[in-house]
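Hey L., structure's done. Input below.
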Amino acid sequence: MAASSALSALQGRLLASFTNRLTLLRPTTAPHITASTSTSTTRPFSSSTPRPAGPPPGAAFHGGQPIRRSKRHQVDRDPKIKILDKALYKLKFVPPPLRMGRNRYLRHWTIHRAWLLFRRQQREARERELMQQYQSMANACEALRTMRGPGLRDEGYLYRVAMEKKGVYRHGGVPIEYARMQTETPAREAWNHDWKR
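Output:
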């Protein structure tokens, strides 16, 4: 008997608190509300003062939406910075996980593994070809190093002359890699097609 009366008293207090909160949330028809009337409502389960609803002070809102610049007022950024942003912050959009049935998943997995196997075979074939070329160059350099030079030249003369690379880039020329100043980032315009001598 005492438990049911305590329960009904608790229900009454909760209902009173709920109706008080509802009156705070409902818009009033009065044209002006002072701060003293808004804080005078009873809040039985809270020891803090009520805060008015709405955006925090100083927030720039227009019609319930944050103010954004229109596209024509935005400053066009440098393409280098755009590329860096794409590389650093590329996880802005994460595609949803694939949802598929058992057979479709098995087909997808088989095709994916076959593609990885094909890519690995291509990579290994390319590495083998490069290794053979490197070994051939190393063998040719070793043969030049151990060979006697023409006439009275000593051993290794041909190797030293070959490593100097005189005349390879024409008389007094430089490799094409040094024709442009070395920079950390690429130029805005990679190649000037309108250039004329």
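The two ends are 107 Å apart (CA to CA). Strands lie at 61-62, 65-66.

-- N.
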